[in-house]
Amino acid sequence: MHWILLCFITLLLSLTPSSFADITNNGIPNCTVPSGNAVNLNPVAAQDQLRFAVIAHYSILSTFFHSPEQAARDAAAIVNVDIEWQRHVINTGETMAEDIRDAVDRNVNALIVTIPDDAVYQAVQYAMSKNVPVIVFNSGLRYAQQLGLTRVMQDDYEAGRMLALELYNRHYSQPLCVHVSTQNDLDLPVINYRIEGITSVFNSTPTLMRAYKNDNRDEAIQKIRQALQSNQYDSIIAMGGAPTTDLMTAAMLGLDPQQKRLGIGFFDLGSNNRTEIFQKWPDVFGISQLPYIQGALPVFLMHLRVLTGYDPYVNRTIPTGPNLITKDNVEKLAAYDGSRFLTTPDGGNTTIGAVIPDVQGDTYQSNIIAGMTELARRLGWKVQLSREDGIYGYPDSLMRHVKQFADAGVNGIVLQSSDRSVVDYARNVSQQHSMPLTIFGTFYENPVAGIVNETTSMVNSLSYNTTRLTRSIAQVMVQDDLKTPVCFQTHTRVLNDFFCEQLYHTYQMILNNASSLPSKDTFIHSLNLTTSTTMEVEFEAINATLRAKNYVPDAYITLSEYIFNVMDYSILRGMMENDSAIYIADSLLDQKDAFLHGRATRIWHLNMYAMGYLAILDILLAGSSQYRPWRVVPLDAPIADTICPAGTYYYQAANFPYCFDANHSSIIPGMQCLLCESNTYNDVPNQASCMPCPMGQFSMQGATECKSCDGDPDADDNTYCVAYKLEQQQQARKRNIAVFVPLSIVIFLVLASLVAWFCWRRHKRHKFIHKQEPENVWLLSYDELMRPSMQHLSSVPSPSLHLSGGGTTTSPSMGPLVASPVRWSTGSDRQFMLPPHGDANTQEQPQRNENRDSLNPNDPALLTAFASSTANDSSEDETIPVPVKERLSEEPKDDNQTGYSKEEDRDYFTTTTTCPQEHSQQPKPLRRTIGFHRNLPVFVKQIGFKRLHIDAIAQHELSLMKIARHPKLVEFIGLCLEPEGTFIVEEYCSKGTLYDVVNNPDIGLTWIFKFSLINDLLEGMEFLHRSKFMFHGCLTSQSCFITGRWELKISDYGLAKVRQSQYDPTLMHTLGKKFPQLSRSHYMLPQHLPASSSHESAHPMIIVPHRENLLWLAPESVVCNGSNVCLTKPSRRADAYSVGLIINEIVSRQPPFKKQLEEISVHDVFEQVEKDGLLPEMAPSDTDEYSAKMNMIIAECLRRDPIARPSMTTLRNRVKAVDPHLTGSNNVVDNLATLLEQYANDMENLVRQRTANLQQRTLELEEERARTQNLLEGK
């Protein structure tokens, strides 16, 4: 035990690292690498380190108190980005434009720029045409708006207006604006915007005094003082930059506040005299745009843009100001600007708690976790997840986990909830612990809007801009000319999603056509956010209601991942209109797959990854400044026209929305776009593969079209074109060799002649083989059948087992299994002692593999025992023969009960030297066993004790059996010719005979099973009557077998002369004199064999093998001689009589003439049938709706006149008219599935009908109540 425990502990220790890795990675898998030399369109997956080029105008950035360049480099170090910062001694718009074009040509991954003039504007346009991502910062607001670019900056117009309002509120109205300018000043656009803001407050344009860097500083200071000492100005504003602020403060320190009241304003903190100016003058105000944050934010946002391929903010301004500087906060803002906090994030000791439900699998929340994990890993932080139950979490659980995280001392919490109690509790915890808290709502709305000041609070919310989103969707709806759209949203116990309502109002405003606008109730539908099954039922109910109103939606709109799953499942099942447009989000892999395969029409990108990334970024920047104005900007969800553009193909690298790249350094999307390889192209987007270029054309990597190899300079270096040109030259030389053309024609004709001769010879041989089947096709070895393959070695029965459960042991040479005789018990209970085609002893029989009828190794049919007999039924020696005719039990019986005499027990078989115990009182039983042929179980049964002599007649019979194939016939496998007798090998049927199934009270047969069995019987008999067999001849319910799929198959057809050869020659000689039709020469031979005697009758006869078979045979076809041997003249009309009796067995669930057999013998019953027209007892006609109809069909089959009996085709048509369960499948299991689906549809219609009746009845009661009220008031 100690060493076992030691091994177990060692195994756990070996598994520990991978387990921790999974926890650390929050379940995010690794991306699989595509085969070949495919290049990923995402640069993060294609290279080790990203390169960003920062190109900014010189003057204003050089005058910041703390350079944004350092902030950008600090941020780049966190996200592993190489920053290329371009600087010039003299910076102009032309040099900036040149730097931008050079960076684009050097294949940088992104650009971060300022846009001061038109030259830079045009260069940025060039970069965008090359698909280079661009973010604008600091300046260039108007240009960025025109280009639709994201910009990180303050609005200089609003900055000027904010500063002017502070002065105006203190009764200053005549400001002097001062600016230190340079040659080719690129700051002038910024200065002009600020002056416009100041003008909007004072209603007059202020005076701008410009000084230059090369001017004498003292003269400039004196000039400013002189202007302020005059009565023309009552305030001064430094327009931006540290040099301007220092010049202004130096001038103001030389003036006396007691002599004249002056207001002071400035843009951007300076480095000198800041403290003195605030202490000396009472009215001092400034504007800060947080330059350190302004330099760092573009790097993070661009890194996020490159990772996901989408901008989290589209054509939006991410404000870093204006932030008002006063005497109270100047030192704090200066300290924030002076601290390079990005260089020393407390990585190893920082833990972020994530209280987010439903983070497992392909969900929106798992995308958020992926974004959080990406930036947290860069910072060296840990993200710890809580385990939430339910789709949106339970309030008690959410609050408990928030408290647990806070008590554990985490450095920040990310929470998803719209429950007000949870939000308020989390806010209080954040305030108590001075801990950053980022919240986003259940429906990704802002749950703290109007509650907290997100600019200054430690609580922040991330949400989507639903105004922009609904407007975009509404515009597409109008563009697509939708007539009957519907919108689906979700709701919880305490909160509703108002997305559809907002979309409806936006659509109403854009449409401008009230007549074509659907009603609000028809357009908006909400599903309860519960289980998927419940939502599916609710969704189908809404669709049914819409169909009842004749409102067929031409578009389904939803952004909910859960409703999308319901809709996509309905589409895949074919339960929704194929021509309906589907508007969805594309955050999930399944959503992308639906769009790529045409199940979704339009998609909008909800960048959940960005939401998680920005949540960590917000916690990182929470301590950067008291003012964080960028936090109030919601995320955008742009429409996505494509997932992978032309020139690429999509590749699913993981079964997860995001995965780690090959270097395990970044988390990138799981659905990736790969560039088309050389000499392939894609001219349309969203393709699963690229198409090869046609012969004679080539393409470069990522091409959207192919170019000709002729005349293109790039073709000389392309190996594809080089090979093509070489091939063309070779073909040209071949065309010049005309002498080989005639020779090729001659060779072709010779070869064609040889092929034709070969085909003719093969056809002739194939025809001959089919005409005369060789012996080795059907001849099998008994020992080989009894020797299982390795696959079945563990499932072969023990040689000592007895099929009937007897106690004697069989010799191994006699086969592994030996059957007990078939016998009848006294009275009406029939015991079929042979195994029902494959049962085994319950306690000892191992498992067997199934046969063609869907056997499986665990099928109980192969595990259950063969029907066991009593101890006195077992013979002392299992090798003693048993007659094939009727076998009676060994117990003493009253002759009145059985109706048999001892003379009737004589054997039809020979008892020659093949039977060693010729004079034994106990006859040898015929062996029945299960063998294996080609790894499939087969049923092997002995038909006699003579080795069959193969002559022309037997050869023809066996060939006919071998080629006979029909699903309702037991397949003939072959024949075993052994010294101890002849064995038939046929298909194995696991359920036993129809007689056993019908008479087994434990098996319940509904009408669908009955009709299935009847249809199988009729189908098989119809085939026999149309085949060369022409009839069955001795059809009983014991010759019908049931497979594992509950299909009925017919056995014991054909091989009449083969079976006859096994009978006693003396008996056959006697019968042959009286009935010449029994002669083996009387047979319809093939055309190439000698014809039979002309004097013999044309109607064949066969011996009835068992006395009880008489109960199923037509009375006019049976002839009995004095030796109690009966023969039958088989015919199709006689088979119809047998079919009628079997159908009656199935319908009534009892054997034929059951009551009569309880009192008289089989022979007496048959005499009553023959003389008195006795009919079997049928099921009562009033039992159900089918019994009467089926009894009529049975009565037609049992008519005394054979001519009046229906054919098998007529019977099939009659049964089809009665059978309501015929659903197009021959298998009862398939029919049951179809009926269950039909039953579900019928129940839905019934519920709708009863609901309508109830509503109608309610209206009638209301009208009755109103009339009663009117009568009472009238009195």
TrEMBL record:
Note the Pfam families from the entry. Answer: Peripla_BP_4 (PF13407), PK_Tyr_Ser-Thr (PF07714), Pkinase (PF00069)
Which residues belong to any copy of the Protein kinase domain? 898-1222
Kindly list the GO CC terms recorded for this protein: plasma membrane
Question: Gene3D superfamilies, from UniProt?
Answer: 3.40.50.2300, Transferase(Phosphotransferase) domain 1 (1.10.510.10), Tumor Necrosis Factor Receptor, subunit A, domain 2 (2.10.50.10)
Instruction: Give TM segment ranges.
Output: 737-760
**Which ranges of the sequence are coiled-coil?**
1229-1271
**Enzyme Commission numbers on file:** 4.6.1.2
| Signal peptide from the UniProt entry | 1-21
Keyword Coiled coil annotated? yes
Q: Does the keyword Lyase apply?
A: yes
Show the ranges annotated as biased composition (Low complexity): 793-817
Q: Which GO terms describe its biological process?
A: receptor guanylyl cyclase signaling pathway
Keywords, alphabetical: cGMP biosynthesis, Coiled coil, Lyase, Membrane, Nucleotide-binding, Signal, Transmembrane, Transmembrane helix
Q: Where is this region: Disordered?
A: 791-924
Q: Which portions of the chain have biased composition (kind: Basic and acidic residues)? A: 884-908
Provide ranges: composition bias, Polar residues.
Answer: 909-923
InterPro entries (UniProt xref): Cyclic_nucleotide_synthase, Growth_fac_rcpt_cys_sf, Kinase-like_dom_sf, Peripla_BP_I, Prot_kinase_dom, SBP_2_dom, Ser-Thr/Tyr_kinase_cat_dom
- SUPFAM superfamilies the record matches: Growth factor receptor domain, Periplasmic binding protein-like I, Protein kinase-like (PK-like)
MF terms (GO), sorted A to Z: adenylate cyclase activity; ATP binding; guanylate cyclase activity; peptide receptor activity; protein kinase activity
UniProt protein name: guanylate cyclase
Q: What is the scientific name of the source organism? A: Lichtheimia ramosa
